[in-house]
Amino acid sequence: xxxxxxxxxxxxxxxxxxxxxxxxxxxxxxxxxxxxxxxxxxxxxxxxxxxxxxxxxxxxxxxxxxxxxxxxxxxxxxxxxxxxxxxxxxxxxxxxxxxxxxxxxxxxxxxxxxxxxxxxxxxxxxxxxxxxxxxxxxxxxxxxxxxxxxxxxxxxxxxxxxxxxxxxxxx
Length: 171
Hints:
Mean pLDDT: 78
Shape: elongated
Order of helices and strands: HHHHEEHHH
Structural class: mainly alpha
Oligomer: single chain
């Protein structure tokens, strides 16, 4: 995984440098990309998600991602940028496709978010979602899988408590 981040960063730096030196794209590209650093994970998210603690895990992770201003990636308010954009070749003025630096930024940030989510999961849970490559897909899958389990447990707990109380009052 570390190698993937290095590769992405290397490609990102090379493509951005090329684009910024191209006079046809200087007005299009915002050279300042802000990539949120998702650090101190172990201090903030102390409970790893397992099959029985989704509400507690979500109560820890949700404010963490909102506090880092990256929850838009998870709930897809910040959409995936196109991988390529049209540009004019600097010498021939022919229309060409180039890698979109905004896509590289999006991929880099989403990869950090995905790594952060994965680090907060138990091995059993991680094996259920490891085929997903985008944080939004992982978040939705976890929500679908575990919120229904949590609701069912809440229902059973409240229902069994009321049955127990009924039996106590009948006696």
